[in-house]
Structures
1.
Amino acid sequence: MIDVNSGAVHAVDKLLFLLLDHVTPPLFELPEKTAIDGYSGAEILEALLDIRELYGIGQLYSDDDYEKYAENMVLSPIKAMCLNVSHDCNLRCEYCFAETGDYAQGRAVMSAETGKAAIDFLISHSKDRQNLEVDFFGGEPLLNFDAVKEIVSHARSKEKAHNKNFRFTITTNGLLLDDEKIDYINAEMENVVLSLDGRRGVNDRVRRRADGSGSYGDVLPKLQKLVAKRGGKDYYVRGTFTKYNMDFSDDVAALHKLGFDQISIEPVVAPKQMPYALTGEDLPRIFDEYEKLRDVLVNEKRAGNGYNFFHFMLDLDQGPCVIKRLRGCGCGNEYVAVTPDGGIYPCHQFIGYDGWRMGSVHDQSFDLGMKDMFSKISVYQKDECKTCWAKFYCSGGCSANNMRYEGDVKKPVKLTCDIEKKRLECAIAMKAELAEDSPVVV
Amino acid sequence: MKYVKTLNKPNLKETAAKGGCGKCQASCQSACKTSCTVANQKCEK
């Protein structure tokens, strides 16, 4: 049982759960002749005392008094940048949200000079933020690796003078990895996101080269080598599931068997008319898979072979503050993406969509009106979120997803919400199961 | 309490008073790049 506004997560006896249907705050008066099958009057009174105690300490029916913080991030510095160093790719993945790499803008790579200008833009707009994140993204960033190295070197040269700490990440399909690139990435990149979809057949059906051949055989040993030499630094093997592999829990298990222990498998982002797109009809099957995955992860953890599935990772005690939880990823406000020509967009998923270009790192132009609009987006601006129990976990969803499929950055996509809520249910239930060492009904 | 076991130390109210420093990671940068879960991020204060 979750108390949404305090963040309390309670494992409760069935009696207490049933009793909540009979009483209401603030007095929780028990209607005369209240009976709950299988429980004595004395037990019901004991459970009632527990309910009153939880309420008294602010862990049940607590108030949502956070709306006053909804505009706390207006005028926020920019602290994160997605640097699209390559709008080209050596794969032609069927489901690519970037239109097989070029974002429908034509194939191009970023010059080192543009990348350096982007770093300078980030520094100049970061005010007092010390930690600055830059993700090398694409397309495939290894197609432009010399520029990556020049950009990293430029940023490092500026850290001391500007009191900044750059944290680089790279998202790659791994095809062009070699020993030199692996060693460089492991030295410089705080996190690495490695694209692979799980089982060979699943991966090669969609993650193909231009000639139609699959990529799994070439990619897998390179990813394994990179991870083996990672030295404990963060990484994720990140796959996508589609209508083609609704049994995606088997892909997670397959990745684990291959030696990976930091795994993310995400639902495909696609228009519903595409053959691989997920739709509302798929939800029961998707939910079953998440349940199955939860069982697998709990059993592996109990057996001492635990591993992480990104969307089941929740720290119920030390997560982000509620002020961050009100507004989500920070796109267009604390976070921007830069294209090979130096164009600035709210995030990588807005690239290629008319009307969302915010400026250019070359002339330092930047649409502060659009930044202001993004800075004010919070769960309180979204009707669907205001009353949702998951609002402080997902924080209102993905603005780009909302724009693409609902035509409004403030209108959550129901399918995405349903999937997210199921993942959160499973993540919280896992915590309860591992704490209680017993099954939990969700 | 006999019928309840609280699994965490609920502190959202406290974080409202002390939070908002902005030192934490932008949530989309970590692994997904296509969907948003904020609660799995770390507080870096």
2.
Amino acid sequence: MNLAIALVKSDAEAVLSGRHSLLDALRGQHLFVSGGTGFLGTWLLELIKVLNDTHGFDLRVTVYSRSARSFAAKWPHLGHQPGVRFEEGDIRYLTELPRDVGYILHAAALTDRRLLASQPGAVAEVNSMGTQRLLKAANLLEDVKKFVLLSSGLVYGSQPWEMLRVEESYAGPLRCNDVNAVYAESKRFAEVLAQSAISETKLPVVTLRPFAFVGPYQSLQLPWAVTDFIRDSFTGGPIRIMGDGSTVRSIMYASDYAFWVLAALAKGRSRETYNVGSPEPVDLLSLAKMITQSFSPVPEICMRLGQTGHDRSRLVPDVGRAARDLGVAVTIPLFEAIQKTITWNRYLQN
Amino acid sequence: MQIAKPKLPISMVDKPKITVCDASLRDGSHAYCHQINLEQVRAYAQAAEAAGYNFLEVGHGNGLGASSLQVGESLVPEGEMLREAKKWLQNTKLSVHVIPGFATIKRELVNAVECGVDLFRVGCHCTEADVSQRHIGYVRSVGREVWGVLMMSHMASADVLLEESKKMRSYGAQGIVLMDSAGAYFPGDVTAKIGLLASKLDVPVGFHAHDNLGLSIANSLAALEAGARIIDGTSKGFGAGAGNAPLELLAAVLQRQGYSTSLNLYKALDAADVAARLFAGSLPNSTGITIISGLSGVFSGFAKPVQRAAKQMGVDPRDVFIELGKRKVVGGQEDLIIEVANELARRKSAAAVAP
């Protein structure tokens, strides 16, 4: 466990090294994070711990989550740090925020694909009503400097295969009469709610559209390609790819993800929308090979196991706007990100 | 000696490879009142291995953990059956049927993993995929293969089956099988439902037939033509009710139709002979009961308990099936059989004393 925590701390220090001045606007502020005990929230707390302990930021944080208490017990090095307060609650019923909050990150959402399939109505409710609740609560504050809404790269609908990277201005089709669109539609609706708040009350909202990520604290039980491949490799394989492995994604390491989000809080332009993710494409077969080579014996990769005709899709962001406005870049290449994730899980298992 | 394959039209040469699942030692358990012994497991597993079936499914007819007074007690503990079968399988993988509720994760799934089960087929009523999430998730977490199985699938429309399949897929299922548990499908139904799933899902789709209306092979063929990549059957049709698609016939049809498989036709025919010898007297055949069962859309596994209850209450078992069909009962509601038979007996006696 100690090795796992040390690995993450080292990554948090590395991503902030020489860049923490980008976040100077957050010094002495009070940040409210909804949904702050998930994958991103945990990493934010890791970075904030370094900002406070090493760089004297004096950044106070209120973490609002349905699992705040169990989180604090599970990760005591994050759960009991000075300046961080946990509040347990359901975002749908939030009414007010601490009066001195200046920065807000809305990350609370139902994102698990299994839940999207089983309880799509709950997804629609939490992701939309939760956003509306937090926007209203934010409007009651005296001095909100930034409200960052975490949306999703899925709001683009299907990225055309010939479009190498999708820019923030692209608006792809979503089929609102298909239940499978519920997550993306709930995020699109959350975005338009935020735009309404900007129009009505001039709330300084910045919208982020995250893509795919990997790293410590990410559950390997999640049914995503990268987590599937790592988990199946840990159990000896084989890795099963239904199509021909040509589907393309891009995957960003967790420390970069957390830093980009903090940078959006500090430097994001109000009313602006930013893609967050790696701009480097990787096809599923290459990803599987990248993962399996870290195991011995190397797990087998089986392909073309599924029905034909569903072989490929692409989801890769253009992050030029974030690079220009926020001054951010990818610092951990994918191969290194994979290695770190595998190592962290090995530490955790031992 | 394997007979030479006939020359095939070009359109047949490119047909996809089909995964063939042998459910004889699981579905056949229904037909054998769950009294299959270890000698039978050993002898049949060897025959299935020789025949080249991709998977051999073993266990109680209702799957792991189902041995009970309500649905019938197994002669042999499932762990012993699985270990015995595993000993004789090399290329053929060992699979089990899992119905959440009968099977718990801590008790049955953990044990089955230790017994070396390769594939878990997690089934539920066709409109209740939600109940399969934890079981599918567990199997994926330990690195074994898992498919979702929608039982009694004649009771739901193609759109509903697709919705439920997508749920199972989201939980991690690596294949989806539609079961015609009541033997109620016609080929047109199969084409519509399997065709939709095959066109919308990225995982292989399969079909499990029952022969109540004598259509098991026709329906299986319709499934393959509609895009199924997995097909179930049992040697000599050894399964619940009127039995399943006989594997020896499927093997012949698949070969003639040009589908690529891992089967050895002669050995598949031999496996059927082995099943005929091992389970003589219990092989399914078409009767008035099984036909009415199929027509009324009632789970094939109800055949024996319905006949017992009808005899006990002095009513026509066909009437019991028709009434159960009206009530849309599903597997797991075996207690309703007694209730229905009792109700029919009450009506019968009331009619007899009426002036």
